[in-house]
Specification:
Helix 3 crosses helix 17 and helix 16 crosses helix 17 (about 440-450). This protein is mainly α. A two-stranded antiparallel sheet has the order 1-2. A two-stranded parallel sheet has the order 3-6. Strands 4-5 form a two-stranded antiparallel ribbon. Among the domains are: about 1-55; about 80-290, Anaerobic Ribonucleotide-triphosphate Reductase Large Chain (Alpha-Beta Barrel); about 305-365, no CATH class. Helices cover about 40% and strands about 10% of the residues. The protein has helices at about 1-10, 30-40, 50-65, 75-80, 130-150, 155-165, 175-180, 190-215, 235, 265-275, 290-295, 320-330, 335-345, 355-360, 370-380, 400-410, 440-450; strands at about 15, 50, 115-120, 125, 125-130, 170-175, 305-310, 315-320, 395, 420.
Length: about 450
C-alpha cells in the first residue's frame, strides 16, 4: 500500500497485525485502508512494530538473492482498475506473472482469457501499420470473448466470476523486433513514444470491439459496477490525455492512419450508451513460450543477449540476433573473428570497436540498458493497459541500494506491478558497509538510496 512506501520514504515505523484481529484490512485499499490501519495502530493492536525501512530492506535482500518476491502496488492497481467502481469490489492480488489484476470475492475466483499480438508482423515500409494492427486486435478480442462462453471451468467459483465480468487480457510480443526494424534504440524517447502509441491503438481497438459486442450480445452483467460506466477509461485513472502522448508524436515513424482528436470522447459516449462486453481487455503477459514459437522477442522486453542457447528435443543450438547478423553482413563485418568476440563476450558487442557505435547502441542488451528507461517506458504505455504487465528488471549485480532506488522509482511512476528481478549467476550481494549486522546494513543501504536517489547507478 502507498502508506507503507510513504513511511519508507519518511523513515517511519510500520506496524504488523494479526489478520484475525484486523480482518477488514485485506478487503480495503487507499484512504479507507489507511484510516483503518491507523485506527488499529492507535488502539494498540499491533503485534510488532519495526522501521519501515528495515522491512523494505529485507524485501530488497530477498529480491537480490532469489529474484522472487515480486513487488506489486495494491493501491495503484485498485485505484486504476475498471472493476473497482464500487467500494466492495477489491483486487486482492495478481496472478503469478503479475499482469492479471482482477476482483475476487468469497464466491468468485478470478479468471482471465489471454492472447498476444505479434508486433513484428506489422512493420511495413519503415513504419508501423496501425490499420492492420487494429484489424488484428478486433479479431483477437472477438475470439477471446468467445472463449468465456465455451471454456471448461474446474470450479463453480471460476465459472461464476468469468460469466459476470467477462475479462480478457490481450497482450503483445515483439516490441524489440519493431525497434530493431525501425532502427530505434530501446531507451530512446522515440522508442517510448512509439511503445505508448502502439499500446493506445491496441486499447482503443479493443474497447471499440467490446462495445460492438455489447451492442450485439449485451454488456457484461457487472458493467454498472465499473468505472467505465461512470465515463472513466484507463487513461482517465492515470490523469493522462491521450492526445498528449502517442498520437501526433514522431509522425514520420508511423503509418498515415490518422488519429482523430475527439475519437476518445466519441467512444466514451458510446460505451456509456451500449456498455462493454468485457470488464477488462488488455494485459501484457511474459510470452516466453509463444514468442519463441513465433520467432520474436518476448512481450515488451529488450533482448537479453545477442547470442543465446535454444534447447529442443533434438538438442541444444546456438542462435544469434538475426538483425545484428544482417547489419554485420552488410558492413562485411560478419567474420569468424567477430563471431568469436561476440561469443566470448556472452552476446555483448559493446567492446567490439570495429562495429560502428550506432549499431552498438541499437543492439545493447537488457543488462546494458538503464533500468530507469524500462520503468519510464512501462509507465508511458500503462495508461492504455487496464490490467497490468509483466515487467522484468535486469541488474547484473544487484545491491540493496540499487534495488531500493529502482522499486521506489517504479512506485512513484505509478506502476501497478513488477515481475522478476533478473541477475547474473555470478552475482554476489554487495553490502553497503563492511561491518555491522545485516539489518543495519540493509537499512543504511535503503536510506542512502532514498535520500540520494540520483546516486544509484541502477536508475541512471
Amino acid at each position: 500500500p502507498d502508506i507503507f512506501m510513504r513511511r519508507v520514504q519518511a523513515n517511519g515505523m510500520w506496524s504488523l497485525f494479526d489478520p484475525k484481529e484486523t480482518p477488514d484490512l485485506v478487503d480495503t485499499y487507499g484512504e479507507d485502508f489507511e484510516r483503518r490501519y491507523e485506527r488499529y495502530e492507535a488502539a494498540g493492536k499491533a503485534v510488532k512494530q519495526m522501521r519501515a525501512r528495515d522491512l523494505y530492506g529485507r524485501m530488497m535482500r530477498t529480491l537480490a538473492q532469489t529474484g522472487n518476491g515480486w513487488m506489486t502496488f495494491k493501491d495503484h492497481y485498485n485505484r486504476k482498475s475498471n472493476q473497482t467502481g464500487l467500494p466492495h469490489n477489491v483486487v486482492h492480488s495478481s496472478n503469478l506473472c503479475t499482469e492479471i489484476v482482477e476482483v475476487t470475492h468469497q464466491g468468485e475466483t478470478a479468471v482471465c482469457n489471454l492472447g498476444s499480438i505479434n508486433l513484428s508482423r506489422f512493420v511495413r515500409n519503415g513504419a508501423v501499420d496501425f490499420d492492420a494492427l487494429a484489424s488484428r486486435v478486433k479479431v483477437a478480442v472477438k475470439y477471446l470473448d468467445r472463449v468465456v462462453d465455451i471454456n471448461y471451468y474446474p470450479t463453480e467459483e471460476a465459472a461464476a466470476s468469468n460469466a459476470r465480468w467477462r475479462p480478457v487480457g490481450l497482450g503483445l510480443m515483439g516490441l524489440q523486433d519493431v525497434l530493431f526494424q525501425l532502427r530505434i534504440p530501446f531507451d530512446s524517447p522515440t522508442a517510448s513514444d512509439l511503445s505508448a502509441r502502439i499500446q493506445e491503438e491496441i486499447y482503443y481497438a479493443a474497447l471499440c470491439t467490446s462495445a460492438d459486442l455489447a451492442e450485439q450480445h449485451g454488456a457484461h452483467s457487472t458493467f454498472h459496477e465499473t468505472r467505465a460506466a461512470a465515463g472513466d477509461l484507463q487513461f482517465d485513472l492515470w490523469g493522462v490525455t491521450p492526445s498528449s502522448m502517442g498520437p501526433g508524436k514522431q509522425v514520420s515513424l508511423f503509418s498515415t492512419a490518422a488519429t482523430q482528436t475527439d475519437r476518445w470522447s466519441k467512444l466514451r459516449q458510446r460505451i456509456q450508451m451500449v456498455g462493454l462486453r468485457n470488464s477488462l481487455l488488455v494485459a501484457i503477459a511474459p510470452t516466453a513460450t509463444i514468442a519463441s514459437i513465433s520467432g520474436c522477442y518476448e512481450c515488451t522486453e529488450p533482448q537479453v543477449s545477442n547470442l543465446f542457447k535454444r534447447e529442443t528435443l533434438s538438442g541444444e543450438f546456438l542462435q544469434i540476433n538475426r538483425y545484428l547478423v544482417e547489419d554485420l553482413k552488410r558492413l562485411e563485418l560478419w567474420t569468424p573473428r567477430i563471431r568469436e568476440q561476440i561469443k566470448s563476450a556472452e552476446g555483448s558487442i559493446q567492446g567490439i570497436q570495429e562495429i560502428p557505435e550506432e549499431l552498438r547502441m541499437l543492439y545493447r542488451t537488457a543488462w546494458e540498458l538503464p533500468q530507469r528507461a524500462l520503468i519510464d517506458m512501462a509507465a508511458a504505455r500503462s495508461p492504455y493497459i487496464d490490467q497490468s504487465a509483466s515487467l522484468n528488471l535486469f541488474l547484473a549485480e544487484p545491491t540493496i541500494g540499487k534495488l531500493s532506488s529502482m522499486y521506489a522509482y517504479a512506485w512513484k511512476k505509478g506502476l501497478k506491478t513488477t515481475y522478476y528481478l533478473r541477475s547474473r549467476p555470478r552475482t554476489r550481494i554487495a553490502r553497503a558497509t563492511s561491518g555491522g549486522s545485516k539489518n543495519v546494513t540493509e537499512t543504511e543501504a535503503v536510506s542512502c538510496s532514498l535520500e540520494n536517489p540520483e546516486y544509484c547507478e541502477a536508475c541512471q
